């Protein structure tokens, strides 16, 4: 069965693998589809076989922030927490490119966690790794200046320039308002670091590190 060789199943015995083949469900998700929304009950554990899904939160004021992405051979960490705690989702997931997942029903997930040490270790390792990245995201949002974060985001993608992205999409990536991103990008353009076009950013000559050459904050 497609998906039976997902990394989450490494080390699982043949009996459990056969049950996964019988009870696991392959689902094809088109680009743009919402996989779950805040408040939805978790129906099972989705394991991405191919494609990409974006998990994000929206504040009461309408601002969005990307929490993480689930790529090929990865697990939806938020679903793990919802299944173990018996609570609904507190974020939403949106398909970014055509995606195929294997959905493990809730009962099968519980049985695998209890019967297979290998599966349990894989799931908890995935949960721990994602928790670490979310802690880093909290640190970024809470303690770093937005100009530094924006410069870092652009610098990491300099080899992909030109970037075909809107200011609104970039604001969601960074968890801020579109107006903030637009204002900072205009300042970056004034300094000769980027060139701005409609739906496109050309990276020209960003400073080599978040503090710039003067040792102060990048727009300090």
From TrEMBL:
InterPro entries reported for this sequence: cNMP-bd_dom (IPR000595), cNMP-bd_dom_sf (IPR018490), Env_Response_Regulators (IPR050397), HTH_CRP (IPR012318), RmlC-like_jellyroll (IPR014710), WH-like_DNA-bd_sf (IPR036388), WH_DNA-bd_sf (IPR036390)
Any Pfam family: HTH_Crp_2
Cyclic nucleotide-binding domain location: 8-130
UniProt KW Lyase keyword: no
Keyword Transcription: yes
Domain HTH crp-type: 144-207
UniProt keyword annotations, A-Z: DNA-binding, Transcription, Transcription regulation
Domain of life: Bacteria
Protein name: Crp/Fnr family transcriptional regulator
């Amino acid at each position: 069965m497609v998906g039976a060789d997902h990394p989450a199943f490494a080390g699982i015995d043949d009996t459990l693998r056969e049950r996964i083949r019988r009870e696991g469900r392959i689902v094809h998700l088109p680009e743009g589809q919402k996989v779950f929304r805040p408040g939805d009950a978790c129906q099972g554990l989705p394991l991405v076989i191919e494609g990409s899904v974006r998990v994000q939160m929206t504040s009461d004021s309408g601002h969005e922030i990307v929490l993480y992405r689930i790529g090929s051979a990865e697990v939806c960490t938020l679903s793990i927490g919802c299944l173990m705690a018996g609570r609904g989702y507190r974020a939403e997931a949106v398909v970014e490119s055509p995606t195929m997942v294997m959905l493990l029903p809730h009962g099968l997930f519980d049985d695998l966690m209890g019967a297979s040490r290998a599966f349990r270790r894989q799931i908890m390792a995935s949960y721990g790794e994602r928790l670490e990245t979310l802690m880093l995201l909290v640190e970024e949002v809470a303690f770093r200046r937005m100009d530094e974060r924006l410069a870092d985001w652009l610098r990491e993608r300099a080899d992909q320039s030109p970037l075909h992205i809107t200011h609104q999409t970039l604001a969601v990536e960074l968890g801020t308002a579109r107006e903030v991103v637009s204002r900072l990008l205009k300042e970056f353009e004034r300094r000769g670091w980027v060139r701005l076009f409609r739906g496109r950013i050309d990276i020209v000559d960003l400073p080599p590190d978040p503090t710039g050459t003067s040792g102060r904050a990048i727009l300090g």
